[in-house]
Amino acid sequence: MKTIDDLIRAGVSGRRVFVRADLNVPLEGTTITDDGRIRAVLPTIAALADAGAKVIVASHLGRPKGAPDPQFSLAPAAARLGELLGKDVAFATDTVGESARATVAGLADGQVAVLENLRFNAGETSKDDAERGAFADELASLADVYVGDGFGAVHRKHASVYDLPARLPHAAGGLIAAEVAVLKRLTEDVGRPYAVVLGGAKVSDKLGVIDHLLEKADRILIGGGMAYTFLKAQGHEIGTSLLQEDQISAVVDYLERAKAKGVEFVLPVDVLVAPEFPDLKTKAPAHPAVVGADAIPADQQGLDIGPETRKLYAAKLADAATVFWNGPMGVFEHPDYAEGTRAVAQGLIDSPAFTVVGGGDSAAAVRTLGFDENAFGHISTGGGASLEYLEGKTLPGLAALED
Q: Phi-psi region for residue 160, left (φ > 0), alpha (ψ -120 to 50) or beta?
C-alpha cells in the first residue's frame, strides 16, 4: 500500500489530488459540536497542499437519500477546515456538476477545495455496480491522483471509497496508515493481558467483534445499553432497560464459550436507574438511584454503570498491557449518567497499557468529558470500520488501496 509520503517524493506539485476524507462531524444546525474528524485528516491535506498539489477534499455527512438536503451540507465542515488550515478553502455546491468542475478548475497549486456531500448523489452508495461506477467515473474526471484517508468509511463499498481508487493512481493518507498500524497491534502479537471494553446501545452491533475477540482477548468488560441483554441472559430482572430479546441466545452462547476458553467476561455489579430516559437538551437533574445489577426494579431502566462497577472495571484495566474500548458505559451526554464512561476513560489513562479508543461515541465522550486526547495511545476515527477490522473482515476501502 503506497502512502502520501511516496506520492510527495514522486512529486505532486500542480497535480489534482482527490482526498477521500471523513468529515462526517456532528452538527447542531450549522454548528459543529466535535471537529475531531476534521482535525484527524488535517495533516494529510496540509502535507499535500504544502507540496503544491491542488487538493480536492470529498466526504459524506449523515444519511441523505441520494439527493441534496441542506441539513447535511458540508459547508460548515469546509469552513472549519479553512480555519484549521489557516487559509481559504473553496467550496463546491455540488459533487460532480458545474460548481465542482469550476471550483477544481480554479484551484492554484497548494490550494484546497471541498466538494459538497458525496451522498447527495445516489451513485455514491448504490448497490448497482454500474451506477456506482458511473459516479466514480465522474469523480475521476476531476482528479489525477487519489488519496484514501477517510478511515471511518473504508468498510463501505461506496463509489468514492471502493470504485474510484481503481480509476486513478492511489495511495493511503496518513490517517489510514496510522489506523491500520494500530489495528495490527490489536490483532497481531498482542501485548497481554488484553482487555476489551464494549459498550453502546445494542448487542447486535457488536456480535461479530465479540465472536472474534473470544479467540483473542483475555477479558471482556461489558457496559452501556447492551449490558442489560447480558444481565437478562443471566436471568436477572432488568425492568424497562434496553433489551434485544432476539440476541439472548447468542449472549448465552458467548458466556458459555468464554468460560470454556478461560476468557473473563465482566458484567456490571450495580447500575444507575431512573423511571425514564433523561432530557438531553435541558440536562435537567435526573435523580438516579443506585441498585444492584440483579435488583433493577420492574418500573426502572438502567442508564449507567454504578460506582462499584466503576471500581471493578478500573481494577480490570490496571494490569492490562493492551486495551481496546468501543462504546460508552451509559448516557454520557447527561451529567448524571456520565461517570461510568468517565471512569473507563480514566482507567485507560491510568493503565500502563497501549490503549485504543475505538471511534464513534467513545471518541466523542473523551472530548465531551474534557480528557486530553494525547493521554490515550490512539483514538480511532472509525468505530464501525475498527470493529469490522477486528472481526477479521476484508474492508473494501483498504483492499482498494492495495497495489
A: alpha
Pick out the chain residues at pLDDT < 50: none
Task: Choose the catalytic residue: 15, 20, 37, 206.
Answer: 37
Q: Which three three-digit cell numbers place residue 339?
A: 461517570
Tell me, what's the pLDDT at 123?
A: 97
pLDDT for position 203: 82
How many C-beta atoms surround the C-beta of residue 12 within 10 A? Answer: 23
pLDDT digits over 328-340, tens only? Answer: 999 999 999 999 9
Is 384 marked active-site? yes
Q: Is 382 a catalytic residue?
A: no
Q: Which three cell numbers stand for residue 300?
A: 426502572
pLDDT value of residue 390? 86
User: 374: exposed, middle or buried (C-beta count within 10 Å: 0-12, 13-18, 19+)?
Assistant: exposed
Q: Kindly tell me the burial class for residue 95, based on how many C-beta atoms sit within 10 Å of its own C-beta (0-12, 13-18, 19 or more).
A: buried
Q: Which string of b and e fits 171-180 if b means at least 16 CB within 10 Å?
A: bbbbbbbbbb
Active-site residue, from 133, 302, 327, 384? 384
How far is the C-alpha of 118 from the C-alpha of 12, rounded, in Å?
24
pLDDT of 151 reads 93
Whether omega for the bond prior to residue 70 falls within 30 degrees of 0, making it cis, is no
CA angle 265, 271, 274 (to 5 degrees): 145
37 an active-site residue? yes
In the annotation, is 106 catalytic? no
Bridge partners, residue 90, by sequence: 113
* pLDDT at position 155: 94
Q: Which of 148, 360, 383, 397 is catalytic?
A: 360
Beta strand extents in 238-345 (DSSP E only): 264-266, 270-274, 289-292, 301-305, 322-326
- Closest CA relative to residue 401, chosen from 183, 147, 144, 125: 147
The pLDDT of residue 32 is 94
Write phi, then psi, for 324 (nearest 5 degrees). -120, 130
* Catalytically annotated residue among 39, 80, 202, 367: 202
